[in-house]
């Protein structure tokens, strides 16, 4: 890899819990818009359903029989099997019964030039961490107003 844009940025994984009967059309359109804009690159996507009794099944995005999965059917071709059964089980463990979980592995492509420039200077990404939105909202709500 020689060019600054050739150095990949960190890959993030998010697990989004949705109610079993959630209308996911808006989320599907938003993901498509991020890809079209070049904001992210999609590495993998998967969906699991956790039944009321705690049993878990992987939802097939290429032939979705679950209403929540239909919005993500256009992304079935992006599935790379990055998520194995262990990953799906771990994600399902975080879900409440009667919900579905959407797993998305993506790269924030905007960071490529920055990481590439650091790489060209002899640097490297040695750590990456994501602060969950809920934590940020909580911290900001507790912060005293400035001014």
TrEMBL record:
It comes from the Bacteria. InterPro entries: DUF6325. It holds the Pfam family DUF6325. This is DUF6325 family protein. It comes from Iamia majanohamensis.
């Amino acid at each position: 890899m020689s060019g600054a844009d050739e150095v990949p940025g960190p890959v993030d994984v998010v697990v989004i819990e949705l109610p079993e009967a959630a209308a996911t059309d808006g989320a599907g359109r938003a993901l498509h818009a991020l890809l079209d804009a070049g904001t992210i690159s999609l590495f993998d996507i998967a969906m699991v359903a956790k039944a009321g009794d705690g049993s878990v099944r992987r939802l097939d995005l290429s032939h979705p029989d679950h209403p929540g999965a239909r919005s993500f059917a256009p992304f079935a071709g992006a599935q790379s099997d990055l998520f194995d059964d262990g990953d799906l089980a771990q994600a399902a463990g975080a879900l409440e019964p009667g919900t579905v979980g959407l797993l998305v592995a993506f790269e924030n492509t905007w960071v490529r030039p920055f990481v590439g420039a650091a790489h060209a200077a002899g640097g490297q990404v040695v750590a990456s961490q994501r602060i969950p939105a809920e934590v940020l909202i909580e911290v900001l709500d507790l912060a005293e107003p400035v001014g």
